[in-house]
Every structure is written in C-alpha cells, then in structure tokens.
Amino acid sequence: MNPLPFELQAQDGDARTGRLTTPHGVIQTPAFMPVATYGAVRGVDAVDLENLGAEIALSNTYHLHERPGETVIEGLGGLHGFTGWHRPWLTDSGGFQITSLADRVKVDEEGVTFASALDGTRRQLTPESVVEIQAALGSDIAMVLDECVPEAVADPARAALAQARSLRWAERARRSHVRKDQALFGIIQGGSSPALRRESARETAALGFDGYAHGGLGLGETNDARREAIYEAQGELPAARPRYLMGLGKPEDLVRAIGCGVDLFDCVVPTRHARHGLLFTSEGQIVVRNARFATDERAPDPNCDCPTCARHSRAFLRHLLRSGESLGARLASLHNLRFTLRLMERAREAIARGQFAALRDEIIGLADRRLG
Question: Do 286 and 193 reside in the same domain of the chain?
C-alpha cells in the first residue's frame, strides 16, 4: 500500500504543481502547513483553517509526547479526533526542538537524551521510539528523527558527523515503521555543504522513503547557499516523491524554494509576525502597530479576501494589538495565514500558466518594502 500517492500535474522550469492523496484528504502542492505545535495554531481553530484554505497542518511530536502524551491522544481518536482538524496532519519528529536545548541534551548513537522542559526528568527519544509515537498520534505523514546542527555554529566536520548520524538513524526509523496508512519522510542534512547535501540525499533516497525533507536550512546560510544546497540534493531525489523544506515561511523564501522544485512548507513566521503586528500584504510589509496607522480606515490589505480585511481597519487592528487584546493577534494571524495560503494558490496558478518567474520576482520585490 502506498500511503501517499503523488501525481505531478504541471511544471514551469523546476517549479511544479502536484496532487498528494492522503487517508484524510487531498493536498494540492505547492502547499503551506500552518504550525499547530501543540495540536492548535495559536488563536486559530480548525474551522478557521478550513475557511482560510489550509489543506494540511503540522504538529510537533516532541511537544505532544511531553503533554498530553501520545497514549491520551491515541485513545481519543488520534490527532484528527483529538483536535477536530480532520484533514491531513504532518508530525515533525521534534529533533530540532530537542537538539536546540544545547545545555540540556545529550546526542549519541542511540538517540537524544534530554531534561524535560516540564519537570526536569530525564527522557530519551530514539529513531524507533519517535516512529512509534507518531504511529500512536495517527498523523498522515511522519518524520524521522534527525540531528540538526545550525549553520551558525557548525563547522564542516561537525556537519558531516551529524549528516552521517542522521542517515544511520533514518535507516533504523525506516526498519521500525510498520503503520501502512502513514507515510514516512526521510530528512536530508549536511549544513550548507553542496557535497554533503548531495551525499545525504542520494543515500537517504536509497532507503526508499515516501517523501523527502530538506532539514537544517534557514538557520544562518545565505540565500544563494540555500538555493545551491536544495538544488544539489534534489538532483539525487526521485521526481515522483514529494519534497519538503522545513521551517521557512517568509514569502520571498517560499517562492525561491518553489522555484527550486519544493512542494511542501511549514513555518511559524506568519503567525509569529502577526502577533507582533507585522503583516504581509500585496503592497509590502505593514508594521501595523506603528503610529501612522492610528487613524487609517483602510483594510490591512485591500486586495486580500481574508475575514480580517473584509471587516476591519488598520486603525482597529493597531488599537487591539497595542491594547494587548487577544483578538488583535487572532485577526492578524488570520490575515497572514490567508496571505501565505493564497500565495500557494497563486503559485500553483502561475506554474500551470508557465508564468511562475513573474510571480517569484514580484514577491521578492515586495520583501524590502515596509509601509510604516
């Protein structure tokens, strides 16, 4: 049984559109996954996500393992029954979150041993246990455990060691994966070294995963280095399998990666920026908390079809955010999520028409425009 049939539909240069079929619904790619770390996007419910156009959401294995625990979630119908989001779920392994604890974590061949952020008790996650936890969570797509070394602190030798260990862990995860209705993705590592990325992709692809993720990027490397790392890896990956860039979500980063042939994305940027009053718009970025918007009666983005822009002004949104009213963060999050999901729709349309380069250039051109 193939748990994740993937049909390529159109291509424009390296950019491509496709159709992923999961047990809980179809995903049109390129697709963005809103981040629901604990099973919910902060301030945004499942009905909101559906109305905004989301087709898949992401949650975090490490955090759900900490609380409420995979046994509780499994007993309540898995993530779909527990959360009320009945469309596809992807669960990240939590490797990045754990290894970023630095002073509280030990990484060795067996796995990752760390002090719980909740009560300080010592816990261990292994490639096998991470797969077992995600099987209990019941996500449509599970991720292997990998060792992520940020570019800002990695030297080539350190990156090579992490890449090799991630591959050994991936092989163990692949052997332990038994849930037939759940896809398992391998993760490519190697810092921004083209050679390591190429080697990691080739050897990870040889293990035969259902899809492949670019891990450890967006952590300090330049745009050019990231682009080369992605291209080198994708040359070794099967075209008939989906490709996922983990943890990047700025509009300009998304279109650059779509232009490299990436299919799936996730990031906290849309909602995190929203809570701080930074909105993505068709005219550039708006820092809506700023004084110049105090009496601005216009919608945050006149060209946006989100519920925030349909009913509320920049002045009202600024007032809510500066007053600490939780509705402000919610309304801003709805807007940024809709902008991002609409960008995916526009990308699919542009690729189908053979006009993706124009959209990419438009979005990159907006990146440095701040309206206040």
Answer: no
